[in-house]
Amino acid sequence: MPLPPTWQQFLDEAGGLSRFTGRFFSQGFKPRYEITELLRQCYIIGYKSLPLVGLTGFIMGLVLTMQLRPSLISYGAESQLPAMVGIAVVREIGPVITALIFAGKIGSSIGAELGSMKVTEQIDAMEVSGTNPFKYLVVTRVMAATLMLPVLVILSDAISLYGSYLGINIKGVISMDLYFKQVFDALSFDDFVPAFIKTYFFGFAVGMVGCFKGFNSSKGTEGVGRSANSAVVVSSVLIFILDLLAVQITDILGLN
Amino acid sequence: MAKRAINNVKLGFFVLAGLLIMIFSLYMIGKDTNMFGSNYTLKVRFENVHGLTSGNNVRYSGIQVGTVKRVKILSDTLIEVSMLIDTKMKQYIHKNDIVSMSTDGLMGNRILNITPAKDGSPLAENGDLLITKKSVSTDEMLETLDKTNKNIRDISQELKLTVLKINNSSALWKLLTEETLPDNLRASSFSIRKAAANADGMVQDLHTIINDLRAGKGSLGSILTDTAIAYNLNEAVLSIQQVGNHADELVRELDDLTKGLKSDVNSGKGPAHAILKDSTLVIKLNNSLSNIEKGTEAFNQNMEALKHNFLLRGYFKRLEKRKK
Amino acid sequence: MEQVLTIKQESKVLEVTENVLVIKSLYKSFGENHVLADFNLELRKGENVAVLGKSGSGKSVLIKCIIGLLVPDTGSINVLGRNIEELSIHEMDELRTKIGFLFQSNALYDSMTVRENLEFPLRRHWIKLSAGERDKKVMEVLTNVGLAHTVDMMPVELSGGMRKRIALARTLILDPEIILYDEPTTGLDPITGKGISTLIKEMGEKYNTSALIISHDMSCIRATADRIVMLIDGRCYAGGTYEELRENKDPKVKQFFE
Ligand SMILES: Nc1ncnc2c1ncn2[C@@H]1O[C@H](COP(=O)(O)OP(=O)(O)OP(=O)(O)O)[C@@H](O)[C@H]1O
Ligand SMILES: [Mg+2]
Q: For the purposes of burial, counting CB atoms within 10 Å of the CB of A216, is it exposed (0-12), middle (13-18) or buried (19 or more)?
């Protein structure tokens, strides 16, 4: 049964990505461990993304609050604003928006970096000098993305909530104490833990797709641009798919 | 190399900040969930738990004291709910304290409320079964509102009638020119009149509320799930009913009294005030009067509480404006 | 480093005419494009062999097969007495430290400075080296290619010829036993090209290394190669010294020497 070319391409991609992921698990946890490079990648991927993620998080919290405010006032439930923003940010908006920003920044940069290394034979050069480029380039980046995104999400959540606090204080008055008390009263472990766990998967997906696209970049500078671009597109879509899976799993586990 | 060391410091700072915020949040969330700290179990049985699940909050006189641990079906008409309660509450919760179920806030998380019984029963031990009180659901509320609405109208009419009777009965007034009874009567007739006016207003207000509800106007439907309001409304309705009952009694007794007086006078059985000193009759009368006073007071208080409820504040304001 | 040294000493003890690289009936094709077909080659210790061939004849493919970047379809490649097909990933990495490889495209790490580019192999394989020793080694190879002043520059700041020389320095930094040069002098002015040719020659004499030199630059080949192999139609078409081949009457060989 012949498949339409787009389908074949899609399946080819999916298969390639799966094999690449399998290779990550088969090689990633064996020595030698590239600790120095891992730390360097953590610094680049995590620390250097903080300003962007923090800024978007702050604006998101502020805007969300200002958008929700009128409708909550019409219900006479203005006092529920911290609780509502808190739950929205911690459960969904924080992880997903941060992951999308992360995919845009890190996914594309990994895709472009590895892509250009591939087409200029730098990856070959690494292999030739007796360094496993998969471990040195891919494993470190995927690990760094997996470990750093959750940290970024937590910081972004905190900044978002602070933005929301300022947002409430633009038109109303609430003390910092009361605000955070209301936020934390509204939150439970069931809100926090699944949202936190899924960020690891988001980070893993972004790192994995970025590396896959870069590592398998086709020759020429055009190939580099394409890998950067499709790294962002594919990882963004994957984030939403994982989010859908996460909500269903938490639902099945009765954690909602 | 030095640059790399500084980068590692920054990275460490970054990761530690994230970790600290996470630990802090977990602690803040955990503070209310009994995951940390010691606690003990109390049980309660319901016919219907209305979607109560493990993790829902348990409050004692409105204070967060624990969470629901497990909901277990005992039989087709009985569900047992285990609650994890903070050990610190062991010295406050008694065996006869009443557990009721209600909804927390607008969005409707189920909560359990433990209300102190204040009857001096022994303190509840780990695993004890507490007593339940039926909760008020929105449907029941609306039904009662509709029924009591009619009752209130009847009651207020009767109250009016009583006041009229008392005011117009000149023979009675003459008989009661001295002692404390007349003063009481005068005062309570004033209260009754006030109560009647309130009840009238209440009837109108409730009418509008119910009509609005039927028309599906505004957010009242969701507001009625708010337990505080439901409670206030119900209490108000109950006090009105009480006032009505007491007033009925009073009317009957006053009737008896006037009948008795008439027959006594007719049969020439001595002066009227002597009869009035008949202790049982006086006590009865006095009791009914103070009952009426209490009832109207409670009713007024409930009405005030209702008006001050923030969700209905706007509604009552609009109502006042319309009246003007 | 000690390990490398002991191996070196061992190999010195061995016979001078020992083959460090033996390629037997190598086949490699990309789809319908049969690039290498029955290619044979032997490289003796301390010998410099030049591979000459038209553009697209498969010279780069050949040395990529030797280093293991490409997997041949059939045929055997024996490097330093070991068949590379049978090596594990780890053993292959170990073997690769003894082979220097100069990429035609240089393949310098863009994100690293010249110093980091050169330190990269050192850090990974000569782990016991102190920072001072590492620095000394870096400066030594950089001085050899005449670019000591560029040590803290980024590759993008360098000219094409300078990059070629940095890549050459990186190739030589681990003191390899076999060096595979893919066009070491292309893009260089004749003077610098001559300098590089001399360097390649010196390397071979000083450390008794063997080299496979791919080049179109006849002056370079003349200066460095002990022997020339003509790669035509995917196989070893002709071989011999520069002088021998110049006298060859075969038109396919002749066109290279006109
Ligand atoms: N990865 C690859 N995939 C498909 N074909 C390839 C690949 N690498 C090389 N080829 C083909 O192999 C043939 C030989 O290429 P190679 O790079 O070895 O040429 P070359 O002899 O080095 O030429 P030049 O002197 O221009 O560098 C070319 O026809 C090229 O198209
Ligand atoms: Mg080539």
A: middle
Select from A6, A44, A36, A34 the least CA-distant residue to A207: A44
Strand order in the sheet with C74-79: C33-44, C19-30, C74-79, C82-83
Please say whether the beta carbons of A54 and A94 come within 8 A: no
Residue of the nearest CA to atom 9 in ligand 1? C61
B contacts of A187 (beta carbons < 8 Å)? 25, 28-29
The secondary element (H helix, E strand) that includes residue A119 is: helix A108-119
What's the pLDDT tens digit per position in B113-142?
Answer: 898 888 888 888 888 888 887 545 545 555
Mind listing the pLDDT tens digit for each residue in A89-106? 999 999 999 999 999 999
The pTM of the full predicted model, rounded to 2 decimals, is 0.68
Tokens of B271: 């002066």
- Among all residues of chain A, which has the CA nearest to that of B105? A80
Query: With pLDDT > 70 as the criterion, what percentage of chain B qualifies?
Result: 35
Report strand pairing: B109-115 vs B98-104. Answer: antiparallel
Please tell me the number of Cα atoms within 13 Å of A214 on its side-chain side: 31
| CB contact at 8 A, B237 and B145 | yes
B49 and B132 both lie in a single domain? yes
**Fold that domain C46-72+87-257 belongs to in CATH:** Rossmann fold (3.40.50)
Answer yes or no: do B29 and A184 touch at CB < 8 A. yes
The domain locations on chain C are: 46-72+87-257
Token pair belonging to C167: 């890549």
